[in-house]
Q: What sequence folds into this?
């Protein structure tokens, strides 16, 4: 008879060492960044525009009326 094999996702995993865990989390963070770089670009542009507008309007907010 053939040997019964476990499904692919059910194999026993050895516990990770702290260094392996850090490496795995760093890899996942880089993958997330690469997948969503467009949103980070949009967020950066929006924050830049808001900062420029905020600095441009600041003199009008701080000046006292004549």
A:
């Amino acid at each position: 008879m053939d040997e019964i094999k476990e499904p692919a996702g059910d194999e026993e995993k050895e516990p990770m060492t702290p260094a392996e865990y850090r490496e795995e989390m760093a890899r996942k963070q880089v993958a997330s960044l690469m997948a969503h770089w467009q949103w980070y670009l949009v967020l950066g542009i929006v924050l830049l525009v808001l900062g420029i507008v905020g600095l441009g309007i600041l003199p009008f907010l701080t000046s006292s009326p004549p």
About this structure: The CA atoms of residues 3 and 11 lie 15 Å apart. The longest helix spans residues 37-62. DSSP finds two helices and no strands in the chain. The radius of gyration is 26 Å.
